[in-house]
Design goal:
390 residues, alpha+beta, conserved putative lor/sdh protein from methanococcus maripaludis s2 fold, Elongation Factor Tu (Ef-tu), domain 3, OB fold (Dihydrolipoamide Acetyltransferase, E2P), 4 domains, four-stranded antiparallel sheet, 27% helix, 36% strand, elongated, disordered N terminus, disordered C terminus
């Protein structure tokens, strides 16, 4: 049997496959070669702040409302017809100034009647005294019965009691006549008259007007129980200290944020907590010369005069929120490293945090361009160095 002849087409196919395999093998070896160092991303530019403990002043702000130091409802003590209003509505009135006049004629008549009754009682007492004095020597010599003398002495006692009652009636009638002039018990700013002249007044049930003392004013605000408990706890453990060691200073600002020149003095803090609001009422006294502020006005109270000793503050933009809570980035050996922190107090555009140590290099700018372990290069912060706690 003759030997088989070689197939030229099969030989060519085997050669092509061998060349393709060699090319694939060479390409694979080329991918395993180390990358060009110049193709790696450059370190991200960041700005940093060195954590430095310091005594940082803090304040606590709450909405408040102004009230007159005293607000008195002016009401008549007697019933009668209102004859006249003796003041200008909205004007300042003095203590003791007459504001209204009630028709005095019925009360003048009552006083005259009481004085007449007093005179009659005085005459009856004098008669009883004379009668007792006349009978006393007659009884001594048995010229008159003892019973007649005893009746005369009793009549004298009854007449004396009637005299005391008549004197009381005169005093009451004189007081009622004086009450026809309705006066202000305090100095302050008057409100409008509630009732016009000619109205029938039913005594204290009738409100005539209101007088408000505007200097000083009272500032009342609610202190949340959570804030109060935290402040008390921080004071007890020394994490918060008062500059004067006793009280907060009270500063005020209007709704537009402008500060008031006058400062108030904290005068009262209720120990009770209102279950409806979860806060206790606090009150401060505010001088108000010239009545520049008005009762009913809303302001904001700032409790100042406290510091957190040895605290560390960073700009708010440096504190980030992650799945595990808040954290900041530090520069550690040229790379970004995350550090968990706990915010303690917000002070302006900075925040006091727990979790940092003195000397930590905190990244404050460029935090959105990096992640944990990212290489960084430190550059000066934009706008100059940051000042935490300022």
């Amino acid at each position: 049997m003759p030997a088989p002849q070689p197939n030229p087409l099969a030989a060519m196919t085997r050669s092509a496959l061998a060349l393709a395999a060699a090319a694939i093998l060479l390409n694979g070896c080329g991918n395993d070669a180390p990358a060009n160092p110049s193709s790696a991303p450059p370190p991200a530019p960041v700005s940093t702040l060195t954590a430095t403990p310091a005594d940082i002043a803090v304040s606590f702000s709450y909405p408040a409302r102004l009230y007159g130091a005293r607000e008195v409802e002016i009401r008549p003590r007697v019933s009668g017809i209102l004859l006249k209003r003796n003041y200008t509505e909205g004007a300042v009135v003095d203590a003791g100034q007459s504001l209204f006049q009630i028709d005095p004629v019925p009360f003048e008549t009552a006083l005259a009647r009481a004085e007449a009754d007093l005179a009659a009682a005085q005459a009856r007492l004098e008669q009883a005294r004379r009668e007792a004095a006349r009978l006393k020597p007659l009884v001594a010599v048995k010229a008159a019965p003892q019973r007649d003398y005893d009746d005369a002495v009793s009549a004298q006692s009854v007449a004396n009691a009637d005299l005391l009652a008549a004197r009381a009636d005169v005093r009451e009638a004189r007081l009622n006549l004086g009450y026809t002039k309705v006066t202000s018990p305090i100095s302050g700013v008057s409100a409008r008259a509630v009732l016009p002249e000619g109205s029938l007044l039913s005594g204290p049930d009738s409100l005539l007007t209101v007088v408000t003392q505007t200097d000083p004013l009272q500032v009342r605000f609610g202190l949340p129980d959570t804030d109060r408990a935290r402040i008390d706890a921080d004071l007890a453990r020394g994490a918060l200290k008062l500059i004067d060691a006793e009280h907060f200073r009270v500063a005020l600002s209007r709704g537009d944020g402008s500060r008031l020149e006058a400062s108030a003095t904290l005068s009262f803090t209720d120990v009770r907590i209102d279950p409806r609001t979860g806060s206790s009422e606090a009150q401060a006294e505010l001088p108000n010369p010239g009545a520049r502020l008005h009762p009913g006005e809303f302001v904001r109270v700032h409790l100042e005069g406290a510091v957190r000793p040895g605290a560390i503050a960073v700009p708010q933009r440096a504190v980030l929120e992650g799945p595990q809570g808040r954290f900041v980035y530090l520069v550690v050996e040229g790379k970004a490293a995350s550090r968990p922190v706990t915010p303690v107090e917000w002070v302006g555009d900075t925040v006091i945090v727990d979790g940092l140590a003195a000397g930590d290099e905190v990244i404050i700018d460029g935090v959105l361009k990096i992640g944990p372990g990212a290489p960084v290069t430190v550059t000066p912060p934009a706008g100059g160095a940051a000042k935490p706690g300022a």
